[in-house]
Every structure is written in structure tokens, then in C-alpha cells.
Amino acid sequence: MSTPEDIRHKVIVKRERTVAEIVLSVLLIGAIAVTVLMVGARYGVLLPQARFLIEAGANGLKVGRLGRLQIEGLSGDIWRDLSVQKLTVRDEGGLWLEADNVHMSWRYGDLLKRKFYASAISAETVKVLRRPTLTAKGKDTGLPVSFHIGDAKARVELTPAFSYERGVYDLDLNLDVERNGDQRGQVRAASVLHPGDHLYVDYDVAKARPLEFLVDAEEARGGALAGALGLPANQAFTFKVAAGGSVAAGRFGAVAGSGTLEPLRAQGDWSKEGGVVAGRVSFTASTLTAPYARRIGPAASFVLAGRRAGVDLFALDARVAAENLTLRARGLADVGARKLEPQGLDLTAETAALSKFIDGPDLGRTRIAGRLTQAGGQARPEWRFAGIGTVSAASFGGYGLAQASGPVEIAEKAGQWDVKTNLAGAGG
To answer: How far from 362 is each of 252, 398, 420, CA to CA, in Å?
Structure first.
């Protein structure tokens, strides 16, 4: 016969077993649920209905400044080996890029390590229909993941709306971009319409590796590459860039040729103690720079020199000289952080005809001198200039001023400009 103590002991043991069974059941149900979800996520996307939902969700996604994405005909294993029948990108002006039969082999598991790894990407055709409008650049938040593309191949067509002359190229590239900014890659573009014409790019930019940056582009009788840069598409075109050394110390040279013209020539070197970059650019050679030719002049020369003036500070001296503009900036800056010191830069600018820079009244020789400062941090800087401006031979309708001078303040934040002036002078 059971005693009261035996009965209590059996009740406690039964309760403990019941609690243990409940806990084990919950854990088992949870494990089954997780397994079902993982299997569903892994293989559910193979179902047409799931691919349709993914396709609908991807459409309209913003691709940086380039526009919005549209895909059609998604197929394959989304997690490993997928295909898209048609991919397009649209901006405010409409469709500007389209790609047919895009295929990608990739490893989805690497995303858990903040890496995007694609062993192969290919497209039957990629057409650049026109120049994109390129929306305003937003806040730079850095790369969310690093990128590795083992091998990408495509037949790329540049239309006359983009490059003034049709060009067809077989493109082959590979790319590595780390989240810390280190990157390297190789690009090979060989012309199909004009055998021998090409664009080759090799680069390796990293703090712990030797610096390499090589560009070799050539079109014997001109072509779409020249046209894409706004240069005459019917004249011989060359573009060479070579840089070597390291991120801390090295040198570079760049030269572009279009027919008998030389649109660009620049060279420079740098080290831990400073450096200098100098060159000359022609604004009349390209339709893309023609607006600058009307305002500044047909060409401009430039020099940027810096010498160490502290642990992270460099004394900078920059000069630009053109027919209708001379500019000089001097001061201390943190070159690595791309940041001005609190005292800013002393800035002087002079133009023989201010009217060429602005749409408005006739304004003659103008000189502005003052200080350019930066605030708001590196991620979203605010620029402010405060100084004195002097304008000669100003004409406003029937009223003219021989000379006017006074304070000038210019502020820029997130692409918004605020200009304040209080000029006063004598009539002419």
C-alpha cells in the first residue's frame, strides 16, 4: 500500500516528465519548422510561383544613380545558377540599357559573410541605347558587401545615340572589390566591327600590394570608344594611362590623342612627404567639355602640389590657368581623409568676363578673394566661401557701373547653393 510520501513522489516525477516532454516537443517542433523553412527557402524558389514573386519584387529596384531595374523571364536555381531572359534599366528619360539572356552562377552562402561571389556571369547581348541622365548622388554609406566576379562575358553594343557611331565589342572582365576599398580587376574589350581596335584595363589598388593601373585604348580610324568620350568618331583615337609604385608612393602619366589633337596630357608623382600633379586639358576636343570651352576658354593647364606639414597635414597649392579663368587655392588639408582643416583654404579667382559663366547681365573683369571652409563631417560636408568680390564694367539694362565691390558669401550643402552678395560702386 502506497504511503502519502510515495504518492507525492510519483506526482512530482510525473510533472517533471510532463515538463520535459513539453520542452522536448517544443524543441522538436521548432527544429522541424526551421528545417521546413530552410528547405522551403532553398527549394521553394524553384517553383514558378516563387520565381514570379521574386521577379515582381525585383522590378523597380533603384540601381544607384543609373535608374531602376526591370527583369523578365527569371528561371533556374535562384540560390546557385539563375537566368534572366531580359534585363533593362530605366531612368527619367526612359529605357537606356537592355541585356538579353543573362546567366549567373553564384554562391548564396557567402552573403552570410558579407561577400558576393559570382564565378561566372554572361549575357548574350548588352545594348547601351543612350546616355543615362545619372540622378544626383546620395550619401555615401560604403559597400554593404565585398564583390568578386570570376569571369564576366558579353557581346556589348554601343548605339549612335550613346557613342555617335555604332560599336560592337566582345567584353571579358573579372573584378574584386573589398569593403575596405582595396580592389583589382581586368577588362578586355575587343572590337567586332574593326578588328584590332580595343580597350584594355588592368588595375590593382590596395594598401598592402604594389600599385598597378594601366589603360590602353586604341582605334586606328576612330570609332565608338572615341565617340563615347565626345571625341570625333572618324579620327584615330588613343588613350594611355600608366601608374605604378604603391598607394603611399608612386607616379603616373596619362595622354589622350584624337587625330592631330591631344585632348589630355598629365603626369605626377607622390610620396609620404608630398607630391605634384600637372597637366593640360583641351575643352574644344570633346562635345562633353564644349560647355567649359565657352565659359573658361579652349584649354586649361593645372598644377596641384602638396608637401607634408604635420602628421596628417599637407600644405596644398593648386593653380588653374585658362583664357577666361585663373584660380589659386592654398592651405592645409588632410589628404587621406579628403578633409580641409578648420582654417580652410585661401582662394583667389579671376575672370576677364564673368558674363560667360552666368546667364544674366553684362559683367566684365571680376575678382573674388576669400576663404573656403568645410563643415559637417566627411560623409556629408558643407562648403562655405566668404570673401570680397570686385566687378568691373557691369551693365544692368540701361544702367551701368564702372566698378562694384563688396562681401560675397557662397554656401553649398547636398547640391543646394546659397549665394549672398552686397556689391556697391560708382556708376559709369
So the answer is: 42, 11, 19
Give every CB contact of residue 55 below 8 A, 6+ residues apart in sequence: 71, 72, 74
C-alpha cell at 414: 547636398
C-alpha–C-alpha distance, residues 137 and 158, integer Å: 25
Q: Which residues contact 20 (CB under 8 A, 6 or more apart)?
A: none
Residue 283 falls in which region: left (phi positive, over 0), alpha (psi -120 to 50) or beta? alpha
Q: Which residues contact 187 (CB under 8 A, 6 or more apart)?
A: 171, 172, 173, 199, 200, 201, 202
- How many CB atoms neighbour CB 306 within 10 A? 20
Compute the distance between CA of residue 219 and CA of residue 10 in angstroms, rounded to an integer: 93
Q: Spell out the residues 6+ positions from residue 402 whose beta carbon is closer than 8 angstroms to its own.
A: 392, 393, 425, 426, 427, 428
What's this model's pTM, rounded to 2 decimal places?
Answer: 0.81
* Contact partners, residue 286, CB within 8 Å, separation at least 6: 229, 230, 231, 263
Is residue 57 within 8 A of residue 71, CB to CB? The reply is no
- Write the pLDDT tens digit of every residue in 117-157: 999 999 999 999 999 987 766 665 666 789 899 999 999 99
